[in-house]
Amino acid sequence: MRWTDEERRQRRNVRAPFLARPFPEKACPELVEGWGFGKHAERFPRLRDIFLRITTLALISTLLSAAAPEKHLSVYSVAANYSLPLVQREGRDYVGLLEVLEPLGKVSAKSDGARWRLRYNNVEGDFQAGKTHARIQGRDSDLGAKFFVENNRGLVPVASLSALLPRFLGGPVTLHEDSSRLFIGSVATHFTASLSGENATRLVFNFTAPVNPMIATEPGKLRMTFSREPLVAPASPTLTFGSKAIPSASYSESNGTAVVTVNSTIAVIASFSNEGRTVTISPSSVAAAAAQNATPLVSGTPVVSEQPAAAANNAAPQVFRRYFAVVDASHGGDDHGETLSASLLEKDITVALARSLRQELESRGITTLVLRDSDANLSLDQRAIFANADHAAIYIALHAASNGHGVRVYTSLLPFGDDDRGPFRSWTVAQHASLPLSRSAASAIAAELQKRQIPVRALGAPLRPLNNVTGAAIAVEVAPQGSDVSQLTAPDYQQLITSAVATAIAATHDQLGAAP
Q1: Among the residues of 102-257, which ranges form H helices?
Q2: pLDDT > 90: what percent of the chain?
């Protein structure tokens, strides 16, 4: 059958009404010309419209994908710190389980249709595509959402990692789900921030491990972004300082990173010292000479770089600081303390408690020294000598236990028959003159813990080095509230305890400070 030209035009308009719509080429003549139609575009109206519409859709798709940055899960462990991409399935964040475990030990996986089996060291896991439960060493584990197998890759919900991974690893795992950050074991880096004793315009950050953040500035702010370090929040996400120049700092987390933002009313710079464990925020004019080799950035100017600031060995001039409180994380080094579980040692818990207590005390304006802030050997005599030499108002030893419930607060139980002789104080009863003050502080701490519904007992015990300390001295032993010893690693529980201790010490600050 032959069609006339008029019939062809009518048929085309009926079959392709969308393509027959005119495209406003005058709005984009360069695009029309770019497809090679040029002045002949009128001869190919449908083909021209197809190309232009495809191009428009492609541009829109590109812009939309660029607007949404790829999400990542940051994993921190003793073995390695690494980042993994996340994927979205049914409105949830998912991650490859094999990829999470690969840097941590010997792992293999095998897919058989809908069944996916994984072996990590000697632990076996059995997963089924579409199922919300898995079997780990023959025990049921709730995933909270469906399991997916894609190209032999097993995908689990990110939210399930805090319950799933301890089954494979045999140790504590902490997941910050909102910010996609995963902590395996006791690897967290803590920090404190305080104004310099002599110069209220210098803000000093002390970190428990070397850091190398990305530094960025804008008017009124200096931002430190930690993408590789397992930095965790202080007791309060907002820190306030009694300084008009640097009134506050804040902590936040998102998409696998931690960010510390310093708010300032003057131009400031960041300089590094102490092998990357100390970051000092100073007025640019004051700190320029001291930080010539630290490649600082000045706030109040446009951001010109976001490269990691190299840690410099040129420490800023040290200012003598009188500490009101000495916090001592018991045990350490070769002395593990109590073995709380197969993978949890007392010496690790006490360090975490000491860092938390320091932050709580300093946020209340109480200058604090932590005697052991790493896995170091420190004898009982050395601990007492350091506390006495600093003439601190109070010494606080921290312990952890798996037996019992809640907290026990100890004061010294002195031996009889060992008196001071002349101007020399007997080492075994050095605590004698300060014992009433120690008991008063212990009672205040016990009362504060009771207010927070934490079981507590105040006791006397022959617990060294309490009897060797000349000032007020107490020991705080923390046990879980229930039967799960892993609660000792929970930041919320640690903060609940240390906040109560700090509040009580702040309440007795004047009484302790008046002691000789």
Answers
A1: 161-169
A2: 41
CA 137 to chain centre: 31
Phi-psi region of 90 (alpha: psi -120 to 50; beta: other; left: phi over 0): left
Q: How far is CA 275 from CA 278, 283, 434, 470, in A?
A: 8, 22, 38, 34
Q: Residue 417 and residue 414: Cα distance in Å, rounded?
A: 10
- Tens digit of each residue's pLDDT (9 = 90 or more) over 189-198: 888 888 875 5
Identify whether the C-beta of residue 254 lies closer than 8 Å to the C-beta of residue 181: no
CA distance 187 to 399: 19
Question: In which residue are the tokens 């004061």 written?
Answer: 411
Distances (CA, A) of 313 to 195, 208, 216, 287, 462: 21, 17, 21, 15, 43
Q: What is the pLDDT of residue 195?
A: 84
Write the pLDDT tens digit of every residue in 19-47. Answer: 334 444 444 444 444 444 444 545 555 55
Quote the pTM value: 0.49
Closest CA to 327 of 390, 398, 380: 398
Query: Degrees (nearest 5) of the Cα angle 176, 254, 102?
Result: 55
